[in-house]
Specification:
This protein is of the alpha/beta class and 407 residues long. It is 37% helix and 15% strand. It has helices at 6-9, 15-29, 49-62, 78-87, 105-111, 130-138, 191-204, 244-247, 275-286, 292-299, 304-330, 354-365, 391-406; strands at 36-37, 99-102, 122-126, 145-146, 149-150, 154-157, 175-179, 207-211, 237-242, 255-258, 264-266, 272-274, 334-337, 343-347, 367-368, 370-371, 382-386. Strands 2-10-9-8-7-3-6 form a seven-stranded mixed β-sheet, with helices on both faces. The chain starts with 5 loop residues before the first helix and ends with a helix. The structure holds D-malate (MLT).
């Protein structure tokens, strides 16, 4: 059996696996040190009570013959898809039939590569969520890695000069990955900025994969939460969302992807092919749905209590992000994000290498961050802090950081 050679081109492990391994090794050598995790965007608050109660009821359903559920509907239960359409897309042109419930945004973002051609030119932000790059490299769309850049990708540079919000490139791309509010920089597109991307996609017959996993963190009124707020987006965009960062489902797994009926790709003869049909075919072949119990839990996020509890959790994490941002700003760092986003993107004064910064903070402050270069070569010299730890640990981490800086 010949392996998929593309795996050999990738860095040895996924960014967050490398961080986790380094932390394990450090803990083995320093068992008495309490490291505060400010790296991966994993939530710390328990599930909203409304979700817990709904899942208890769902487990009881599964335990009685009259309410037991086997395989669920392939796209997800109608009760959840209808709740998503009515709440997340209230006033927007998205129907329940266009929503595909899954086991999370990460899986969908990686799996979408099954429906576009191996030859597609993929545009990715630098820095950006590593799944966009790694999954397309695995599928054979990366080419070769030269000086930290894949030769077949179109890179959308995100720098302080453009507020970490790239404008459409001159070059042609077939598939464009955009994340807003962005992981890792926290930058969020206004409607006007997003309109330029929709226009570009229409002109280039391209597909936008819009990752709005963090849309619940948007507070600014000009910032788009959904790409479908932009006219014409239904013809060019897929949107991917998650219950992880809103209702704390990182350990439960549930997300969804919107593939509008009006969205098409093109076959070799340039005939239009509805992408919804392809995604349905892909999902029904390779995926058997998120569990009934979890989908009932996700549905409960749209109940009146559920909405309040999710809002509280999001506010809690935003407050943590504000504490991080303010502490670092006062200390004289260049700080971005943390306003409409749980992530704070930091340029560490005088330091060039993100992994050295990671090691230094671990050694000296016993806090872990995510090295910016793990999100792309333009992340070199940056680090990312997450607002997803508890308030107490966030405060303690900032206190330790201030200590290190003052020495
Ligand atoms: C992150 O820290 O960037 C996220 O937690 C990654 C993810 O959601 O998979």
């Amino acid at each position: 059996m010949r392996i998929n050679d593309n795996f050999e081109k990738l860095p040895e492990s996924y960014l967050f696996s490398t961080v986790a391994r380094k932390l394990r090794e450090y803990k083995e050598k320093n068992p008495d040190v309490e490291v505060i995790r400010m790296d991966i965007g994993d939530v710390t608050l328990p599930l909203p009570a409304a979700c817990v109660a709904a899942m208890h009821r769902a487990v009881d359903d599964m335990g009685a013959g009259s309410t037991f559920h086997g395989y669920g509907p392939e796209q997800g239960y109608a009760f959840l898809r209808e709740a998503i359409a009515a709440n997340d897309y209230e006033g927007l042109p998205v129907g329940a039939d266009e929503i595909f419930v899954s086991d999370g945004a990460k899986s969908d973002l990686g799996n979408l590569g099954d429906i576009y051609s191996r030859d597609s030119i993929v545009a990715v932000t630098d820095p950006g969520y590593p799944v966009y790059v790694d999954s397309n490299v695995i599928d054979g769309r990366g080419g070769e890695l030269v000086d930290g850049k894949w030769s077949r990708f179109v890179y959308l540079d995100c720098t302080p000069a453009n507020g970490f919000k790239p404008t459409p490139p001159v070059a042609h791309a077939d598939v464009i990955f955009l994340c807003s509010p962005a992981n890792p920089t926290g930058a969020a597109f206004t409607r006007g900025e997003l309109k330029a991307w929709v226009d570009y996609a229409r002109d280039n017959k391209a597909l936008i994969v819009f990752d709005s996993a963090y849309c619940a963190y948007v507070t600014d009124k000009d910032t788009a939460r959904s790409i479908y707020e932009i006219e014409g987006a239904r013809e060019v965009a897929i949107e991917v969302r998650s219950f992880s960062k809103t209702a704390g489902f990182t350990g439960l797994r549930c997300g969804y992807t919107v593939v509008p009926d009006t969205l098409v790709g093109y076959d070799a003869e340039q005939r239009e092919v509805p992408l919804r049909k392809l995604w349905l075919r892909r999902q029904t072949t390779k995926f058997n749905g998120a569990s009934y119990v979890i989908q009932r839990g996700a549905e409960a996020t749209y109940s009146p209590e559920g909405k309040e509890q999710v809002k509280e959790n999001v506010g809690y994490y935003l407050n943590n992000a504000a504490i991080i941002r303010d502490t670092l700003r006062k200390a004289g760092f260049e700080v971005y994000g943390g306003v409409d986003s749980p992530y704070v993107w930091v340029k560490y004064p005088g330091a060039a290498d993100s992994w050295e910064l990671f090691d230094m903070l671990l050694e000296k402050a016993h806090i872990s961050c995510t090295p910016g270069v793990g999100f792309g070569s333009l992340g070199q010299g940056y680090i990312r802090f997450t607002g997803f730890n508890t308030l107490e640990k966030t405060r303690e981490a900032m206190r330790r950081l201030e200590d290190v800086i003052s020495k």
